[in-house]
Amino acid sequence: MKVIQARSIRKVLDHSTLILFAAIVITFGFLSSQFFTFQNLSNILIQSSSLAIIATGMTFVLLTAGIDLSVGSTMFLAGVVSAKMVAWGSPLWLACVTVLLVGTLYGLVNAFFIYRFKIIPFIVTLATFYVGRGFGLFLSETRAMNLPEGFLKIGSVSILGIPFPVLVLGVVILSAHLALSKTQFGRQIYAVGNNAEKARKAGMPVDRILLSVYLICGFCAALGGLVAIAQLGAVSPTFGKQSEFMAIAAAILGGTSLFGGKGNVFPGTLIGAVTIQSIQNGLVIVNANPYLYPLITGAVIFLIVLIDSLRHMQEVKSRRLGASF
Which residues of 69-94 are buried (b: 16+ CB within 10 A; e: fewer)? Predict the structure, then answer.
């Protein structure tokens, strides 16, 4: 009886993402008929594309039981560098490539200190979070930097009727999903997240895998930042602020565990990002008090972490009950 009850609770927790998503969509749809219009649903998908891309990179890190608090600073620094390059007359394509290189280099710096000097990821990425934002503020002189029309075209153009940000998101999600579910590299990521020491004893290149996930996370942070500034048309001193928390929340909401070894980008992380954007969009549509936005967002993040903790506790309990029978 206890085993059946434990399995029932676990099923509910495993499907908590879809349950929460449905509850949010139905609630806002009931409060405002405008929420379910095609234009609004399209806007939600476009606006969530940047967050979903960043959260995809974060998913790779979380799967190894790591964390990256520097993604918001990566976005900001990469955006400032690209804006400076364009202002100095560099071609748009070169600025975009530089953005991705800056993000990848940032991931390399994080990985170097984490696995060369064995410093825990939280401390390393917290330090690079402050360093990156400080350096970005220094370069921008704490001023908003407007971007040329070419950047705005990236955010507004459509290819075969599909908005470019959504197209980029589709490529990232598909590539990440195939990498995690169909390749040896993906299986090794899950193995490292479940037990890094056992994975090392089994002959897996643990350090190389850990290096790779932080490179991927840095690259995705820069790419997500590029998609975001292409929609905004400017890089402000607050650009990318708190993006790291939203990315972590989206990944966990999508079923990725903070304890590592469990999760997926499709449909998990994608639904998590769309859910968070749906909350923000819905609050605007129902004309909620702006002061309530951080309170509601904070409550949702707390609920997400609580669900992940309960899910992990239930898995441990299920293993113990299964072993006793």
Answer: bbbbbbbbbbbbbbbbbbeeeeebee
- Phi-psi category of 149—alpha, beta or left, where left has phi over 0 and alpha has psi -120 to 50? alpha
**pLDDT score of 318:** 64
What are the structure tokens assigned to 275, written together?
Answer: 């859910």
Residues 6+ positions from 146 with CB-CB distance below 8 Å: 83, 233, 234
pLDDT of residue 322: 55
Distance from C-alpha of 260 to C-alpha of 243, rounded to nearest angstrom:
21
pLDDT band of residue 10 (cuts 50, 70, 90) is: low
Going from N- to C-terminal start, the domains of the chain cover 38-319
Exposed e or buried b per residue across 193-206, where buried means at least 16 C-beta atoms within 10 angstroms of its C-beta: bbebeebeeeebeb
Predicted model pTM: 0.91
Instruction: Give DSSP secondary structure letters for 194-246.
Output: H-HHHHHHTT--HHHHHHHHHHHHHHHHHHHHHHHHHHHSEE-TTTTTTHHHH
**What are the beta bridge partners of residue 159?**
162
Residue 96 tokens read as: 């975009």
How much is the average pLDDT of 280-292? 87
pLDDT value of residue 18: 81
What's the CATH fold of domain 38-319?
ABC transporter involved in vitamin B12 uptake, BtuC (1.10.3470)
